[in-house]
Each structure stands twice: as structure tokens, then as C-alpha cells.
């Protein structure tokens, strides 16, 4: 499970946290009494202390399974578009697509990338490096 400080900050948003229905196998940042931090594995639907849910990649993908973004099928676009965006220097796309390519290249894990994709398509928010901001 990817647990970087950036991913934890990205996950700590109402749009994600309010969707959490604790299940065995979930991961959460557990902050008991605000003195120390440890990533914990949810067992029997319980954790202790203040928890920040860290969705796994499959959970992020499932968030898009039942909702369609405005203008494209997320799985088709993600599977065929984003990987090419990330690994190619010049695909001959237009200026808008180039901005989107640059936006997604900032993420260092598939969890970060999927979370950004979920937030942009379902909540019209983009990560600016420190917080989620409304997208145009």
C-alpha cells in the first residue's frame, strides 16, 4: 500500500473521507491521541483513534464504476490515454491536452494518479501540490 505523506494529504478531503464505509482490508492512517502516526490495516471493520482512509487503487477505480464523467468513459480514457500521456514526450496533441498531460505527470504512484483522476472527474477538483482546488 502506497503511504507517502503527499498521498495521505491528498486523501484527507471530505469528498473521499465521507465515502468510507469501513471494511476488512482497508488501510487508514491512525493517529492515536495525535502523538504518533502509523498506517493500520482495518480488521473487523474497526480501527482506533482518528483515522484517515487511504483508498487502494481498486477502491478508487470502483468510485468511477457507477458514475460517468461528463464527456468520456473513465476506464477507456484512463487505460488508453493516460499511460501514453505519461511516457511520451510529444504525441502531437493540442495545448489543452498538453496541460492535462503535465498535470498528471506530477503524480508518483498509481494511487495518486487514480485519486487525481477521481477528484477531477467526479468533483471537478485538481491537486495543486498542497491541496485540492476547483477546476475549470
Give, in spatial order, the strands making up the sheet with the most strands.
Answer: 2-1-3
Percent range of helical residues: 40-55%
Structural class estimated from helices and strands: alpha+beta
Could you spell the SSE succession in H and E letters? HHEEEHHHHHEE
Q: Got a strand count?
A: 5
Round the mean pLDDT to the nearest integer and report it.
Answer: 76
Largest sheet, described in full? 3 strands, antiparallel
- Low-confidence spans: pLDDT under 50, at least 5 residues? none
Please indicate the percent range of residues in DSSP E strands (runs of 2 or more). 5-15%
Inertia-based shape: elongated
User: What's the helix count?
Assistant: 7
Overview of this structure, please?
With 136 residues, this protein is of the alpha+beta class. The chain has a domain at 56-134. The chain is 43% helix and 14% strand. The protein has a three-stranded antiparallel sheet, with no helix packed on it. The chain has a two-stranded antiparallel ribbon with strand order 4-5. β1 and β2 form a beta hairpin.
Task: Write the SSE topology.
Layout: H1 5-11, H2 14-17, E1 27-31, E2 38-41, E3 50-53, H3 57-65, H4 74-80, H5 82-87, H6 95-105, H7 110-123, E4 125-127, E5 132-134
Antiparallel strand pairs: 1-2, 1-3, 4-5
